[in-house]
Amino acid sequence: MDQAVSVNADPDMPSDSEGRSSRWRNWTGFWLLGLCNNFAYVVMLSAAHDILKQQGSHNSTSPTPSTVALDVEGGKSRYDCSPVSAAAVLLADILPTLLIKFSAPFFIHKVPYGFRVLVCVATAIASFLVVSFSSTVWISILGVIFASVSAGLGELSFLSLTVFFSRDVLGGWGSGTGGAGVAGALLYSALTQAGLSPRNTLLVMLVVPVAMVISYFFLLVFPPSFPQWKCREVESVRGGDSQSRRPLLDDTEEEEREKGVEEDKVTGPLTCIEKLNIIKGLLRFVVPLGVVYFAEYFINQGLLELLYFPNFYLSHAEQYRWYQTLYQVGVLVSRSSLCCVKFRRIWALSLLQCVNGVLLLLSVYYQFLPSAWLVFVIVLYEGLLGGAAYVNTFYFISKETGDRQREFAMATASVGDSLGIAISGLIAFPVHRYFCSL
């Protein structure tokens, strides 16, 4: 049997044998992978809207949905509403990701990492090309689906990949995913503001999947025995943090260890019972993460478009754009904070995020906030909470999971944020309709 691949040999810092150059390359590589992986997902929320609007003006003589004033039961809404909630685009961009995250952890280990990355790159390229050259609404939606598949498969694959490197690469990955939101929004807006059409802007962004290929295949320094192009069989691995690890599995598994089955000597793939036990142990991480993302995306996609201040110097569209931008800035800052501060109580972050959701829900109904400046502060704080919940969740899962279970646990836990986003999108529809009917 080949020598086992060392998995997170040191819990907090990379081993000295890696060398400073390798540590820097791996951190930078995962930062770029995080940026590239989420880039198409972020951009499609804006780009698909622009393409669809352009198609609507070309294919129909009737007004496009974005230009129709909402008139409910013969009366004007007191809100400056669009007839369809922003949650509609969100659902098209998140449901394929959610489906992949629910199913893939049970079979994806049979697909080598090299092939997974090539699929992510191919679907990202397809998303930009399909949306760029689409002539119908359904073709554009297909392009958004391609972006969602790329992001979903990439997230669970790259999170699983971190177990083969020192744990500090999680900080690089988290920071890169946070940077994708800011970079995607700013770059798309800048290029279109400069005069490029949405189609040409998306074609320029084909450089992003190319950067993913370079980051993965040429920047990362893989362990010598890493199974790049073949299925990895689970082997004996060394546990470097057994004393500080809190058991993820249940009492039954602990009893089996006491009978002489030591974790570090177990070999072979995980059984279905073991996977179910791991999922059970992950709930204390996944549920708070899902609640955090449910609250923040309910705010972003269900409430922020209704928080319009007519007497403010920014237009409605500009206010909404700054809401989203400041949220992404908060996410970037907190997802980059793992090297400075670690926060294990994810449930506290979820509680604070729910407080934000309730506060903004009441402010939409009673309209008691005096200025958009207060909303700017709240959404920046909202982004800080969401980003902190994400990076700390995966850091402590990596830290407290047994070496043999860690790869599966990291992939499975990624369903938490996507599930919260999907549920928030579904609930945002009736909430949006209710407020616009007032």
Architecture overview:
This protein is an all-alpha fold and 438 residues long. The chain has a single domain, classed as MFS general substrate transporter like domains (Growth Hormone, Chain: A). It is built from 14 helices and 2 strands, in the order H-E-E-H-H-H-H-H-H-H-H-H-H-H-H-H. A two-stranded antiparallel ribbon has the order 1-2. Helix 2 (87-103) packs antiparallel against helix 14, helix 9 (272-303) packs parallel to helix 14 (415-436) and helix 10 (316-335) runs parallel beside helix 12 (372-400). The longest helix is centred in the first third of the chain and has 41 residues, at 19-59. It starts with 18 loop residues before the first helix and ends with a helix. The model is unreliable at 1-6, 9-15, 60-74, 234-245 and 250-265 (pLDDT under 50).
